């Protein structure tokens, strides 16, 4: 059976083992030989990252045609209107692509959320809101572009789940082995 590792990637780390410029690599966090990232998160995003030693599984997890949903917690500047949320749900049109429809809902600030280092900027006169967004695709900086497009820039982005697997119980920088295979990743609904 393929080895699958779940990692809570902290802010400031690339989805690769080697550092680059001001960003750190995963090598200092993960001491599991022979695993590679399946999908990616930008250095300024946090949360669940999957790694595996199986190249075919790696491609399947990362490939949007398999429609493995990815759930994100997104802190945005301001308080999105229902019209802005509806636009996100329908998909956002850009010159180079149109996003697929997605699930979007307002959520309270996630409980037991770790502080980010460096902290998210705070503006006393501008409130922030949290959204839960479920995507079935993953274009470059897609969520940040989507929320900015409807007038609510992303301040913090955390991938909470990939398929049925969540980052529950993993502090930033911590990892654990996943005991199942692809069917287990995709088979169950995400539960809180």
Outline the structure in words.
It contains four helices and nine strands, in the order βββαβαββαβββα. The radius of gyration is 16 Å and the shape is globular. Strands 1, 2, 3, 4, 5, 6, 7, 8 and 9 form a nine-stranded mixed beta sheet that branches. It is an alpha+beta fold.
List keywords for this structure.
single chain; 192 residues; alpha+beta; Alpha-Beta Plaits; 9-stranded mixed sheet; 4 helices; 27% strand
In brief, what are we looking at here?
16% of the residues lie in helices and 27% in strands. The protein has 4 helices and 9 strands, in the order E-E-E-H-E-H-E-E-H-E-E-E-H.
Quaternary structure classification = single chain
For the largest beta-sheet, the strand count, sense and barrel status come to:
9 strands, mixed
Based on the structure given, which CATH architecture is correct? Answer: 2-Layer Sandwich
- CATH topology (fold) name: Alpha-Beta Plaits
Number of strands: 9
Q: Total number of helical segments?
A: 4
Number of domains: 1
Using only CA atoms, what is the Rg? 16 Å
Distance between the termini: 27 Å
What is the strand and helix layout of this fold?
Elements lengths: L3 E6 L26 E3 L7 E7 L2 H8 L7 E8 L4 H9 L12 E5 L20 E8 L6 H8 L4 E9 L2 E2 L8 E4 L3 H6 L5
């Amino acid at each position: 059976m393929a080895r699958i590792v779940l990692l809570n990637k902290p802010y400031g780390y690339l989805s690769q083992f080697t550092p680059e410029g001001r960003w750190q690599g995963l090598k200092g966090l993960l001491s599991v030989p022979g695993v590679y990232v399946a999908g990616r998160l930008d250095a300024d995003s946090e949360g669940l990252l999957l790694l595996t030693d199986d190249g075919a599984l790696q491609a399947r997890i990362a490939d949007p045609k398999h429609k493995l949903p990815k759930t994100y917690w997104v802190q945005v500047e301001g308080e999105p209107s229902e019209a802005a949320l509806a636009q996100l749900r329908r998909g956002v049109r850009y010159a180079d692509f149109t996003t697929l429809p997605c699930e979007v809902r307002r959520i309270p600030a996630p409980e037991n959320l770790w502080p980010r280092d460096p902290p998210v900027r705070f503006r006393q006169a501008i409130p922030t809101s949290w959204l839960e967004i479920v995507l079935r695709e993953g274009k470059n900086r897609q969520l940040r572009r989507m929320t900015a497009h409807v007038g609510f820039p992303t301040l913090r982005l955390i991938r909470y789940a990939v398929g049925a697997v969540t980052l529950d119980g993993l502090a930033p920088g911590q990892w654990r082995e996943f005991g199942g295979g692809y069917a287990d990743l995709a088979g169950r609904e995400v539960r809180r």
